[in-house]
UniProtKB/TrEMBL annotation, chain A:
Described function: Component of the Mediator complex, a coactivator involved in the regulated transcription of nearly all RNA polymerase II-dependent genes. Mediator functions as a bridge to convey information from gene-specific regulatory proteins to the basal RNA polymerase II transcription machinery. Mediator is recruited to promoters by direct interactions with regulatory proteins and serves as a scaffold for the assembly of a functional preinitiation complex with RNA polymerase II and the general transcription factors.
Gene Ontology terms: biological process: regulation of transcription by RNA polymerase II; termination of RNA polymerase II transcription
Key words of the record: Activator, Nucleus, Transcription, Transcription regulation
Organism (species): Capronia epimyces CBS 606.96
Single GO MF annotation: transcription coregulator activity
Protein family per UniProt: Belongs to the Mediator complex subunit 18 family.
Subunit field text: Component of the Mediator complex.
Protein name: Mediator of RNA polymerase II transcription subunit 18
CC per GO annotation: core mediator complex; mediator complex
Predominant localisation class: nucleus
Location in the cell: Nucleus
InterPro entries on file: Mediator_Med18
TrEMBL record, chain B:
Regions crossing the membrane: none
One of the Pfam families matching this protein, by short name: Med20
Organism of origin: Capronia epimyces CBS 606.96
Gene for this chain: MED20
UniProt protein name: Mediator of RNA polymerase II transcription subunit 20
Self-association and partners: Component of the Mediator complex.
Keyword hit for Nucleus: yes
InterPro entries assigned to the protein according to its UniProt record, in alphabetical order: Mediator_Med20
Length: 266, 257
């Protein structure tokens, strides 16, 4: 699946107005979204030193080794385990102040109300493009010990953070106005279970001290290599960009800022 | 809690599978009741570095993606833990499983094959397409028989037969001899679910009685046993997870080449 996206910034002061404009544009009330993001870093595959030095000529054997070498040297990507908080009761959204979920004690969400999925995002495709394009994959994880599984799979837990925001949908396009909150860091085996912070999200420190928000407008295309669909998605996003020009500036993302690869030097 | 025995009979190239004979014999000779078709899909990956010429194959790690007709909506993904050099040969492989919706088995397979290739390399896919599942002496025994094949059309090498062997699953739903502890739902607990020697003997004897008179020889087969969870006659298996059964199949299908 491919994701086509444009990004923009919304300052704290503009936030409420932007939400209202988006609500007007999409003719829907924002859907409050809270996600826990656990970041996993791939371990370097061992055995790169086992590689026989170049120069030997053993025919077919050599070809296999060459293939393995290419595989081993392919890019390593961070992955995330994303937990979407599913409200126990459908919360009634307030019209005005929708920045945060109301931190009152109305039905504490417990652990079972988190819907987890394994999220892979490629680095956006290179070249000057009208919209950012990248391969994405989101696999719902139903049951099991995810952290231990990922550990065996070659991925180490690094840290976690939270994303809160409002989502809008317009045909195929989803618009997500969100910000990143820092979470208390805990060891890997607790990272999944510990959700004690959910009752006091308003107290969590913001990653961006200015209180600004990010906005992402994106379209997911199952067959992203299909040129027709690619064109259509691009056209839709550019039309949206034009329509929202007065409210927010949407641009393709900085490719290197969206890089999900592990740097070679680390 | 049912006890399940799984038997894999390797079949040499150009030999026919005895499965049809076996199914016909059982349906004729026993009060058998057909259960939904038995099928499975197993994709095996090994850690890429272990394929290098100088690496120690006994330390090889595996990832399996398994879908079973017992729990059709669920796909199991299992990874084995890294092994110690000292205990590598003796220890049974401990694995950690998670479940994903079976609709995501293909996307996950693709992701591993492209973006996770420094870690994992595809090794073998095996399928049972049109197997037979029978309930015998209702509620007590269930037998599943299927031909294990390499799926065709994937790599274009169809010159040789793609039949690898016959799989026979025999499960005894011994509700009468209920274990004290309840069916475990957490995945870790299933590590303990080895079955008793008596149950193993019982399952073997039952299989012998089934194949008696068919001329099918199971002596060359490999066998694995485990306590599993789902009673075979349970119809509503959507969303149900059977860790024990999934591990049993993964352990079995990891090895035949």
């Amino acid at each position: 699946m491919h994701e086509f996206a444009l990004y923009g910034l919304v300052s704290r002061d503009d936030h409420d107005r932007t939400l209202q404009q988006l609500a007007g544009y999409t003719r829907m009330q924002p859907q409050e979204t809270t996600e826990i993001h656990l970041v996993f870093k791939p371990r370097k595959p061992l055995g790169l030193d086992h590689l026989p030095s170049a120069g030997g000529s053993q025919g077919v054997m050599q070809q296999d080794v060459q293939k393995l070498k290419t595989m081993l040297n392919a890019g390593l990507y961070y992955m995330q385990l994303i937990g979407e908080i599913v409200p126990q009761k459908s919360l009634v959204t307030e019209n005005g102040d929708v920045a945060m979920s109301n931190g009152n004690d109305d039905g504490k969400p417990d652990t079972s109300a988190v819907r987890w999925s394994l999220d892979f995002k490629d680095t956006p495709e290179p070249g000057k493009q009208a919209v950012s394009t990248r391969l994405v994959s989101r696999i719902p994880m139903n049951d099991g010990n995810f952290v231990k599984f990922l550990d065996n799979f070659g991925y180490e837990y690094v840290s976690r953070y939270m994303v809160v925001g409002s989502r809008f949908y317009d045909h195929d396009t989803s618009l997500f106005v969100h910000k990143v909150l820092r979470l208390p860091q805990v060891p890997a085996d607790e990272a999944l279970r510990d959700t004690s912070f959910l009752t006091k999200t308003s107290e969590l420190p913001e990653q961006d001290g200015s209180g600004g928000y990010l906005i992402q407008a994106s379209i997911d295309v199952v067959d992203g290599n299909n040129p027709d669909l690619k064109d259509r998605a691009t056209r839709q996003l550019l039309a949206l960009k034009e329509a929202l020009r007065q409210a927010v500036e949407l641009t393709p993302g900085d490719r290197l800022a969206l890089d999900t690869r592990v740097p070679l030097t680390s | 809690m049912p006890s399940t025995g799984l038997f894999f009979l390797p079949i040499a190239p150009n030999q026919a599978s005895p499965s049809a004979t076996l199914v016909a014999h059982i349906s004729r000779s026993f009060p058998a009741q057909a259960l939904p078709t038995f099928h499975l899909d197993h994709r095996l990956f090994v850690d890429t570095p272990s394929l290098l010429p100088n690496s120690d194959a006994s330390l090889r790690r595996f990832t399996s993606i398994l879908t079973l007709s017992h729990t059709p909506g669920t796909t199991y993904v299992g990874t084995t833990s890294p092994k110690d050099r000292a205990t590598a040969t003796e220890q049974p492989v401990a694995s950690t499983l998670v479940t994903i919706p079976s609709t995501h088995a293909d996307p996950f397979t693709q992701l591993i094959g492209t973006k996770i290739q420094p870690h994992w390399a595809h090794r073998q896919s095996l399928v049972v397409d049109n197997g037979t599942a029978l309930a015998l002496q209702p509620q007590e025994w269930a037998v599943r028989i299927g031909d294990v094949k390499i799926p065709t059309g994937r790599s274009g090498q169809q010159t040789t037969s793609n039949l690898r062997g016959m799989l026979v699953e025999v499960s005894l739903n011994n509700a009468s001899a209920q274990h004290e502890r309840l069916d475990s739902t957490t995945e870790e607990e299933t590590e303990l679910e080895a079955i008793s020697k008596d149950e193993e003997t019982l399952i073997r004897a039952f299989l012998d009685s089934l194949i008696d008179g068919t001329g099918v020889q199971m002596t060359n087969s490999r066998a694995l046993f485990r306590n599993t969870r789902i009673p075979s006659e349970d119809n509503d298996t959507n969303g149900v997870v059977d860790w024990g059964l999934a591990k049993l199949y993964m352990d079995m299908l990891r090895t035949p080449r």
